[in-house]
Design goal:
This protein has 361 residues and is of the alpha+beta class. The chain has four domains: 2-109, no CATH class; 112-188, Outer membrane lipoprotein wza fold like (Roll), CATH 3.10.560; 194-259, Ubiquitin-like (UB roll), CATH 3.10.20.30; 263-337, Roll (Outer membrane lipoprotein wza fold like). The chain contains seven helices and 20 strands. A hairpin with a 5-residue loop joins β16 (263-268) and β17. The longest helix is centred in the C-terminal third of the chain and has 23 residues, at 337-359. The termini are far apart.
């Protein structure tokens, strides 16, 4: 009986091939939830012999399909990572098909569920938010439309466990930014220990950022999620006085950030004049290439740059690196090569006529 079953499993005509257009690639810490839709594939010597779609039921289990007509068992996988669930399924499959040596689980779609919001959240949400198993704590709490100002992100609680989201923002520590599960309860405290910040990111309003012991201007930029724009930061004012990124800040301080335009403007004899995204490593030649290159009338030896706030133009070479907000102006030549080709014979004839008329004896 068993050899016949094994042969039928190894027969490619038996292997079920569901049509799945795409799958998610969950992070390593993703844990399977009831309602997840999975693609389960069992292999024997790298050949797929069993493949089927499975929903994780309300008990957290998936069926174990080893034949076209029977499901001899179900396996509980709720709360397991993908890697752990693959090992559990492989062990169960081998009881029926010893020839199998690997099981793959892919996530077709994550389960959708609600999480409960308590504390300093927008009351318009009524204490609930619909999300899915790929949502992290930061996706909810760092959304200005969800969390209210004066939020204490250093001590966010999920089902009684406390997490410091600033450690995730500043250090990338994922242990402080867990994936959410069905009906998790998130509690967010209010704090008065804040810094006030304003810049082009705040639409003219002051944003509040929780203050922590030892914070510097740079740390506040990280908490505002503006650190990637440091290369266009022109000026920082701390309580109205100029400050540096290393200047310490205290509770109640006000920071004003002045960011330059993150573009370089390319004008003159280029194919497509206009703004080009600034990057610190780009040269004048790079910006001209992104403006689709020189026109035929361009004078490549007459390139000038104007800095923001200045009225003077500085002549530069192609390897010069402009700053954010700079204007590159490519000058024009009096004659293009086409002009020389078409006007060349006429110029030579005129020169011969002048010579023979006035200078030849």
């Amino acid at each position: 009986m068993f050899p016949l079953l094994l042969l039928s499993l190894l027969d490619s005509s038996y292997a079920r091939k569901p049509e799945v257009k795409s799958v998610f690639v969950p992070p390593p810490d993703y844990r399977i939830n009831p309602g997840d839709r999975l693609l389960i594939t069992a292999y024997s010597r790298r050949v797929s012999v069993i493949q089927y779609e499975a929903f994780v039921d309300n008990s957290g289990a998936v069926p174990l399909e080893v034949s076209p007509v029977s499901r001899p068992a179900s396996v509980r996988v709720e709360g397991l990572t993908i890697d752990s669930a693959q090992k559990v399924l492989l062990g169960r499959f081998r009881k029926f098909v010893p020839a199998l040596n690997f099981v793959s689980i892919q996530l077709i779609s994550p389960a959708k569920f609600y999480v409960m919001l308590r504390g300093n959240f927008d009351p318009a949400l009524n204490g609930y938010m619909r999300t899915n198993g790929l949502t992290r704590l930061s996706d909810v709490v760092l959304d200005e439309k969800v969390a209210l100002p004066y939020s204490a992100l250093s001590r966010v609680r999920i089902n009684g466990d406390t997490f410091n989201l600033w450690k995730f923002v500043k250090e990338g520590d994922l242990t402080q930014n867990p994936l959410l599960g069905a009906y998790d309860t998130i509690f967010l405290e209010r704090t008065d220990s804040v810094i006030y910040a304003v810049g082009d990111f705040s639409d003219g309003n002051y944003w509040t950022v929780e203050w922590s012991e030892g914070d510097r201007v740079y740390d506040i930029l990280l908490k505002l999620r503006q650190a990637r724009r440091i290369y266009v930061l022109r000026n920082v004012l701390l309580n109205g006085r100029k400050a540096s990124l290393e200047t310490p800040v205290n509770v109640g301080d006000t920071l004003s950030f002045d960011f330059a335009i993150p573009f370089v403007i390319v004008l003159g004899e280029v194919v497509r004049p206009g703004g080009v995204q600034f990057a610190p490593h780009k040269t004048v030649q790079d910006y001209i290439i992104e403006a689709y290159g020189f026109t035929e009338r361009a004078n490549r030896w007459n390139i000038r740059v104007k800095h923001p706030g200045s009225t003077k133009m500085q002549r530069v070479s192609l390897d010069y690196r402009p700053g954010p907000g700079d204007v590159i102006l490519v000058g024009s030549s009096l004659l293009t090569m086409r002009d020389i080709v078409f006007l060349g014979p006429s110029i030579v004839s005129a020169a011969v006529l002048i010579y023979t008329t006035f200078f030849r004896k």
